[in-house]
Q: What sequence folds into this?
C-alpha cells in the first residue's frame, strides 16, 4: 500500500486501493483545510514533494492548471498516489481529528501532534 | 416590470458523466435533451423544457435565465439595461435549445443573465387534470424545481440597484456593515413572493456561490440528507435553518465542486413588504441561525 507523508509535521499513513490522499487521511483520523472535496475550488491545493499521483476523476484545469501540475501542485481531495508520496501543505498543518481512528489505522504521528 | 421567476441555471462541470449521476440519480432530475457536451434537465414539477443545463469544461456559472411575463417586457428591460450602462445583446430563437427570442445582459458583476418569454412547454409529471401530489416513481431526492441562485459581486449596492431598477426585483433582506450609512454587503431579492429569487454577497465578480432546489418541508430536507450520505455527496453545511429567509437547508457540492442547496420553508413576501435588515456582526446567525457560526468553506468557496 502506498504511503502518504504530510509535511511539515511528517505524519505518515497508508492508503488503500484507489483511495485519495484526503480519504486516506480522513480514515486515519487526520484533517486539514479543505473545501468542496471535489477538485473544484482549490482550497486544499498542496505541493507534491516526492512521488506521483493520478487523477481518476477529472478536475477543472482552471483549478489545477497544467503549469501548476508541472511544478508539483496537487489537489489532495482528488489525487490518488501511484506509490509512496510526500506532500507539503500550504499555510496549514495536519490536525488530528480523532485519536481513536489514528490509533486504529496506525498513522505515524511520532513527528506530529496527535 | 415583468420578470416572473428564475427559469434556468447553466453551469460548467468537469465531467459530464460523473455529473449525470449526481443530477439524475441523486437529485432525481430528468434528462430532457443532450448534446455531445451538454445535458439539459428539468424537475418533476416544472412546466418548461429545462431548468438546469450542464456544460462540460471547467466549473462555475455560465448564465442564469429569467422568464418574463410578456414578450414586450424584453424591449423594456433591454432599454433599461442599456440606460443602466450594461452591455446587452439580442438572442434569437435557437441560440438556446427550446428557448425563444430574448435579451442577454452582462451585469455590473460580470455575470450573464438571459431574459426570455418563450420556452417549449413540456408540463409537469403529474399533469393538469386531477393531478396526484407527486409522481410515484421519483428517483433520489426527487427535486421538484429550482428555487434561486446566490452569486458574488464586488459592488452589492450596484447589483441591487440593477436588479431593482432594470429587472423589477425588490430587496427582501439586506446585510449592512452597520446601521445608518453602512455599506451593503449582501442582498436577498425577490420577483415572486418567496424570500429570494436571486441573492448576492460581496465577493469576486462573476462567481457562483450556489444554486438551490425547493423542497416541500424539513422532512424532505432530512430525506435529502440521507440520499446524500448514501451517494457520498460532499456536504458543506446542514441540515440547519437560516435566519435570513428562515429557510431550512443543506448545502452540498456536485462532483465538480459547484455548490448546490436544497431549501424549504421560508416565508411569503409581497410588493409592500418592507426589507429586513441584518448587521454584519450578526451575519453568522443570519446565515446559520442554529449553529451561529460560518464555516470557512461557506464564505471562501465560489466557482
A:
Amino acid at each position: 500500500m502506498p504511503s502518504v507523508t504530510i509535511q511539515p509535521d511528517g505524519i505518515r499513513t497508508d492508503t488503500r486501493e484507489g483511495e485519495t490522499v484526503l480519504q486516506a487521511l480522513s480514515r486515519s483520523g487526520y484533517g486539514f483545510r479543505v473545501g468542496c472535496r471535489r477538485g473544484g475550488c482549490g482550497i486544499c491545493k498542496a505541493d507534491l514533494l516526492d512521488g506521483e499521483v493520478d487523477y481518476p476523476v477529472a478536475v477543472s484545469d482552471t483549478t489545477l492548471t497544467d503549469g501548476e501540475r508541472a511544478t508539483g501542485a496537487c489537489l489532495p481531495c482528488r489525487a490518488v498516489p501511484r506509490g509512496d508520496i510526500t506532500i507539503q501543505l500550504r499555510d496549514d498543518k495536519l490536525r488530528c481529528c480523532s485519536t481513536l481512528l489514528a490509533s486504529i489505522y496506525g498513522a505515524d504521528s511520532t513527528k506530529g501532534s496527535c | 416590470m415583468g420578470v416572473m421567476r428564475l427559469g434556468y441555471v447553466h453551469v460548467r462541470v468537469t465531467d459530464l458523466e460523473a455529473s449525470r449521476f449526481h443530477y439524475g440519480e441523486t437529485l432525481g432530475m430528468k434528462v430532457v435533451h443532450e448534446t455531445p457536451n451538454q445535458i439539459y434537465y428539468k424537475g418533476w414539477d416544472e412546466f418548461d423544457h429545462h431548468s438546469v443545463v450542464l456544460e462540460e469544461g471547467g466549473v462555475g456559472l455560465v448564465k442564469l435565465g429569467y422568464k418574463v411575463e410578456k414578450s414586450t417586457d424584453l424591449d423594456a428591460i433591454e432599454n433599461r439595461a442599456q440606460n443602466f450602462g450594461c452591455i446587452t445583446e439580442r438572442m434569437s430563437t435557437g441560440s438556446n435549445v427550446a428557448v425563444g427570442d430574448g435579451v442577454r445582459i452582462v451585469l455590473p458583476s460580470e455575470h450573464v443573465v438571459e431574459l426570455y418569454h418563450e420556452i417549449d412547454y413540456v408540463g409537469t409529471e403529474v399533469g393538469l387534470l386531477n393531478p396526484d401530489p407527486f409522481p410515484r416513481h421519483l428517483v433520489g431526492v426527487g427535486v421538484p424545481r429550482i428555487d434561486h441562485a446566490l452569486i458574488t459581486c464586488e459592488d452589492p449596492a450596484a447589483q441591487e440597484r440593477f436588479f431593482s431598477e432594470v429587472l423589477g426585483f425588490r430587496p427582501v433582506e439586506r446585510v449592512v456593515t452597520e446601521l445608518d450609512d453602512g455599506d451593503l454587503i449582501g442582498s436577498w431579492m425577490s420577483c415572486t413572493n418567496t424570500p429570494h429569487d436571486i441573492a448576492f454577497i460581496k465577493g469576486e465578480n462573476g462567481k457562483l456561490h450556489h444554486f438551490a432546489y425547493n423542497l416541500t418541508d424539513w422532512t424532505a430536507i432530512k430525506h435529502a440528507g440521507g440520499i446524500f450520505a448514501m451517494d457520498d455527496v460532499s456536504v458543506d453545511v446542514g441540515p440547519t435553518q437560516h435566519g435570513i429567509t428562515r429557510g431550512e437547508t443543506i448545502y452540498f457540492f456536485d462532483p465538480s465542486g459547484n455548490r448546490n442547496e436544497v431549501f424549504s420553508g421560508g416565508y411569503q413576501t409581497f410588493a409592500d413588504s418592507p426589507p429586513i435588515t441584518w448587521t454584519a456582526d450578526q451575519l453568522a446567525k443570519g446565515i446559520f441561525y442554529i449553529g451561529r457560526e460560518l464555516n470557512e468553506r461557506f464564505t471562501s468557496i465560489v466557482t
About this structure: The radius of gyration of chain A is 13 Å.
